[in-house]
Amino acid sequence: MLKTAVADEQKLLSIDRRWFKDLVPFVLDREGVADAKIGLAFVDDARMHELNKRYLAHDYPTDVLTFPMARGKTLEGEIVVSTEYAERECVQYDWSAEMETSLYVVHGLLHICGYDDADDAGADRMEVRQKELLDAFAGAHEPYGAGVKAPEASE
Questions:
Q1: pTM for this one?
Q2: Which site among 4, 16, 72, 154 is 20 to 30 Å from 39 CA-CA?
Q3: Where are the beta strands (DSSP E) in the chain?
Q4: Distance (Å, rounded) from C-alpha 128 to C-alpha 41?
């Protein structure tokens, strides 16, 4: 069974909870995960900065933080997304902040599934996979519909 909890702790974007509650099982199913408990939290840069400093000793906000909790029979994890970061970054890809936040969620889910982007090969593998997953999901689901594509991997 796949369970997803969504916490919206920011005011910048209107979070479509149904979209994310559909996105999570879509990705996990394609990664072969049948049992999972995933928490999503959408926060502002101030909160993200605080969490990034506390848990990674990085004194700045970031796009997404992932906290894998368990990889046994039931996969568990928390994903924290900065909507302010997404709002800034989406401009360079010519798509919405909502799609950028979706990309961050897919990225976090792949980390929970065991992907690692610490080296170039892992980062490349992860970028290709998150693009495949987001393109497939967004192309088949409203409100974005067919024709929405994830940005190409950055150089």
A1: 0.90
A2: 154
A3: 2-8, 36-43, 64-71, 75-82
A4: 24
Assess whether pLDDT exceeds 50 at residue 108: yes
* pLDDT score at 94: 87
- Is the distance from CB of 109 to CB of 24 less than 8 angstroms? yes
111-to-22, 106, 126 alpha-carbon distances in Å: 18, 9, 9
Element (H, E) at 134: helix 120-140
What lies within 8 Å, CB to CB, of 55 at 6+ separation is 65, 67
One-letter identity of residue 114: G
Domain ranges within the chain, ordered by starting residue: 2-140
Cis amide prior to 143 (ω within 30 degrees): yes
Domain 2-140 has CATH 3.40.390.30: yes
